[in-house]
């Protein structure tokens, strides 16, 4: 069965992934506050849960090709993934759920820039102005912490993670031309296990069964969310798909307020709104160009790929 490219379907997949990622972030924040679980342990359980999930659901001819895990691009995606995930988890624990996610969600800006340079995705003329607006918003978001000298290492760690996350999205986008979503994700999970096991082992004995359950639950939730986001990038370009992820700090921030009494100042809220608004507009602008474009044109045949065992046709101008 051939699957046409559909912006609507891509948006639905991305929105579902937003919900799953937000729930996982709140779990990581909770165990970090009340169970003294660090980022290494959280990353390890995410890798473990993800590996179990992807093998259970997608092995035996259902889209998982373990023989492809030796490919350099999949290995690169794995190392980028474990690095950005661990950075995010440490900032979730030390900065708070809402603040960590606002910083992390600047990655679409970097993803759009990197995609324009690496994938030759032509940005909309308004994108440059929107990127500038987003950076102004980010400056406002950090202004009070800079003035009060509370801007620290974890803020820098969060920004570095956002840059690497932008690069990760571009690698995923490139891989979706030739690899299935489960294969791409399994590479991240297995490399995460290899990297984090020796660093997480000291915490194994101190972690209660209930905390293990929460961590594995969060890992399972985000595993399915990762599959959704990878599939979503088949239907959306980097700027569009990444921009929808801006809803994560909204949901996560609301959860942080209710569960952990986290809050933002007025200036921080204004900065966050500007950044997220600019990111949202980045996803709207390219669609205006597509709406007035020429008739559908197929990408050359060698970009055909499989997804979960089903052959997917060459990518065409999206259906709305």
From TrEMBL:
SUPFAM superfamilies: Multidrug resistance efflux transporter EmrE. The lineage of its organism: Bacteria, Pseudomonadati, Verrucomicrobiota, Verrucomicrobiia, Verrucomicrobiales. The chain crosses the membrane at residues 12-32, 44-61, 73-95, 101-119, 126-142, 154-172, 184-204, 210-229, 241-260, 266-284. This is EamA domain-containing protein. It is found in: Membrane. Keywords: Membrane, Transmembrane, Transmembrane helix. InterPro entries: EamA_dom, EmrE-like. The keyword Iron does not apply. It is a multi-pass membrane protein. Residues 9-141, 155-281 form the EamA domain. PANTHER family: ACYL-MALONYL CONDENSING ENZYME-RELATED, SOLUTE CARRIER FAMILY 35 MEMBER G1. One of its GO terms (cellular component) is membrane. It holds the Pfam family EamA.
């Amino acid at each position: 069965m051939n699957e046409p490219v559909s912006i609507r379907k891509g948006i639905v997949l991305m929105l579902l992934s937003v919900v799953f990622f937000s729930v996982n972030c709140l779990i990581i924040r909770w165990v970090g506050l009340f169970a003294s679980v660090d980022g290494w342990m959280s990353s390890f359980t995410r890798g473990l849960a993800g590996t179990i999930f992807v093998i259970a659901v997608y092995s035996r001819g259902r889209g998982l090709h373990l023989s492809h895990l030796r490919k350099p691009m999949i290995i690169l995606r794995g190392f980028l993934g474990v690095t950005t995930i661990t950075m995010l988890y440490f900032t979730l624990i030390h900065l708070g759920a809402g603040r960590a996610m606002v910083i992390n969600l600047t990655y679409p800006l970097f993803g759009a820039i990197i995609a324009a340079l690496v994938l030759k995705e032509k940005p909309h003329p308004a994108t440059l102005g929107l990127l500038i607006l987003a950076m102004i918003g980010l400056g406002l978001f950090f202004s009070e912490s800079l003035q009060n000298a509370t801007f620290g290492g974890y803020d820098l760690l969060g920004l570095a993670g956002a840059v690497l996350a932008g690069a990760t999205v571009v690698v995923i986008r490139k891989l979706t031309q030739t690899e299935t979503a489960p294969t791409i994700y399994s590479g991240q999970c297995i490399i995460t296990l290899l990297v984090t096991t020796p660093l997480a082992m000291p915490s194994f004995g101190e972690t209660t069964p209930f905390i293990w359950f929460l961590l594995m639950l969060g890992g399972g939730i985000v595993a399915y969310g990762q599959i959704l986001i990878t599939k979503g990038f088949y239907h959306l370009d980097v700027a569009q798909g990444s921009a929808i992820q801006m809803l994560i700090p909204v949901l996560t921030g609301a959860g942080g307020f209710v569960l952990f009494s986290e809050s933002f100042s007025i200036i921080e809220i204004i900065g966050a709104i500007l950044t997220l608004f600019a990111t949202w507009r980045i996803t709207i602008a390219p669609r205006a160009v597509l709406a007035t474009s020429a008739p559908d044109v197929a990408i050359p045949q060698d970009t055909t790929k499989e997804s979960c065992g089903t052959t997917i046709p060459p990518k065409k101008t999206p259906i709305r």
